[in-house]
Amino acid sequence: MSETVTIAAIATAPGRGGVGVIRLSGQNLLPLVATLTGGKTATPRLALYSDFVAADGTPIDNGLLLYFAAPASFTGEDVIELQGHGGPVVMQMLLSRCLELGARMAEPGEFTKRAFLNNKLDLAQAESVADLIDASSQSAARMALRSLKGAFSNHIHALVDDVITLRMLVEATLDFPEEDIDFLEAADAKGKLQHIREQLDGVMAQAQQGAILREGMQVVLVGAPNVGKSSLLNALAGDDIAIVTDIAGTTRDTVREMITVDGVPMHIIDTAGLRDTDDVVEQIGIERSHKAVQQADVALILIDPREGVNARTQEIVDGLPEHLPCLEIHNKSDLLDATVLQTQQYIARASDVMTLSAKKGDGLHQLKQALLKQVGWQGEAEGLFLARTRHLHALQAAAVELAYAADCGEAIDLLAEHLRLAQVCLNEITGEFTADDLLGVIFSRFCIGK
Ligand code: GDP
Ligand code: ZN
Q1: Residue 112 maps to which CATH number?
Q2: Is any ligand 1 atom within 6 A of the Cβ of residue 330?
Q3: Strand order in 104-105's β-sheet?
Q4: I need a labelling partner for 247 at 20 to 30 A (CA). Which of 145, 353, 415, 427 fits?
Q5: What is the ipTM of this complex?
């Protein structure tokens, strides 16, 4: 373990609370305990009730002190938690006292970073700490905890082990030229590679579902003015957040709302009319709308079936990114005579046509189900990992290398190289070969005190 300075932070959320926690991590913290408690000593994992005193011996606060001796702690170093009274002033005074005693303020995620650097957690587990704290739904929280306990990492480690075993076989063939392709065949290298690819596909499928739950999906509402975009947003969100008016072009801003459907977060984004205009305020809204559309996972193209697709709608549809999946939504079904209620498809690129009434709320359930289907949600959160996009990319890159490996024929040196690269990709997930700057990015997104 490298020599590290003691770090300290208020670990509880800002504001008032019954109890506030200050956390410290460093080496040999017992002298600090003695000074802070006016001469007491702490036993690992045993709560110590004490005054916490200032330099002149006057109490700042009293409460519980928990001591975890290295290496049996979250960070792998000596860790102290001070449970004091949860007021902002007293917490600040206590923190200042810790800084006075030689600690420095912890950076965001620094406790978890130390846990990673001391091999208490791998990188995927460290990330799941932040994901657990940031979880926006119960399913996401459960998945993050599973990843934290190592469910995801264990799969990756198993894959890496299999790749290493195969690599040893292949490299032995390279080292001993008399062992040729027949040797690999006899050892069923092909079968072993195939098995690894299947395992990887399985992990990737689970991770993809996990990523859906973590990242949610971006749904943009597009269409001509007055087709009912704002109304649909409100209907989906269940309350009034956008201004609904009868004057065309009054939705001047991009308005977004997050809903969850079967535990899947969905960011619904209402766009301004997406048209050329000289109005500055409107232009800003339109710019944001364009950005939202570029980042979207699916577009809902709203039309008023009494008007069909007018020039405005056509212009908007033509402006959508080429590969953006679209659903055609016929709104205001309540204004249609039931006998003429028909779902004629106007927009060729739309994968589905649905009729609904934003005003009456008819058809919203079907719409939500269609969105779940669109994103590929299998409807089962149990057993998934809360994977990040970073993990998905690494898994995909590993899959590509393994596919190349399977295509190498008798070029054993190429086979060896692709297997090596596949392993590098997998190791990136758990952090064995991760560049320092990536670590910096990952941990800087944590909150202070974690
Ligand atoms: P936007 O410009 O596309 O955002 O459209 P709005 O949501 O502002 O709606 C324009 C007008 O259509 C408002 O008067 C809404 O009340 C009305 N409207 C929206 N959806 C429906 C619907 O399903 N049925 C009926 N009857 N009117 C609707
Ligand atoms: Zn609107």
Answers
A1: 3.30.1360.120
A2: no
A3: 48-53, 59-68, 78-86, 17-26, 7-10, 104-105
A4: 353
A5: 0.98
